[in-house]
């Protein structure tokens, strides 16, 4: 059974088990999906309300996009697990295996790709949460703040999974390119998530 199809408690138990997957990468994707789902809930409470009729078309578009992002992030839980398998096998190759370095490098690239994709999606979600914190239903404004915190955690967690793989790459030019992309997303979107949270905090206190 795919991790994304399991009950929450089963997934939590799987995370706690002494097994390589699901791990931090899968957890980051899952938390990102949770934050995205909360954003959709804010949309749901905004759509159809006379008070928010002037922004309904925009919120409908946001909800549709967030649904796609939620599905993608949930699917990355299993993508992350699948990417770890060849890396684990590569580490198990004899040190003197003639193709070990190439196999390892390819596995590291694949393992780094999924958390980068998680970060890209989560950055998009944070942008929408910034809009929802301004225009979404005040009834569930606190949920927009929780969503922002989930997405911030997902972003920072996924970044760690990028860095642990790029650090081991022999192609340093490629590794530095991925690290730079990761650094840029952290520098731009962690502060944005913080701004959403502070905006929500000011509204509820």
Structure summary:
This protein is mostly helical and 205 residues long. It has 6 helices and no strands.
What would you note in describing this structure?
Helix content is 80%, strand content 0%. It contains six helices and no strands. The protein has helices at 8-16, 24-46, 56-91, 100-135, 141-166, 172-204. Helix 3 (56-91) runs antiparallel to helix 4 and helix 5 (141-166) runs antiparallel to helix 6. The N and C termini lie far apart (43 Å). The model has no long low-confidence stretch (mean pLDDT 94).
Write the layout of secondary structure elements.
Elements: H1 8-16, H2 24-46, H3 56-91, H4 100-135, H5 141-166, H6 172-204
Give the strand tally: 0
Helix-strand sequence = HHHHHH
Q: Could you tell me the radius of gyration in angstroms?
A: 19 Å
Q: Strand-residue fraction?
A: under 5%
Largest sheet: none
Helical content class: over 70%
Distance between the termini: 43 Å
What shape does the CA trace take?
elongated
Structural class: mainly alpha
Mean pLDDT: 94
The low-confidence runs, each spanning 5 or more residues with pLDDT under 50, are none
Count up the helices. 6
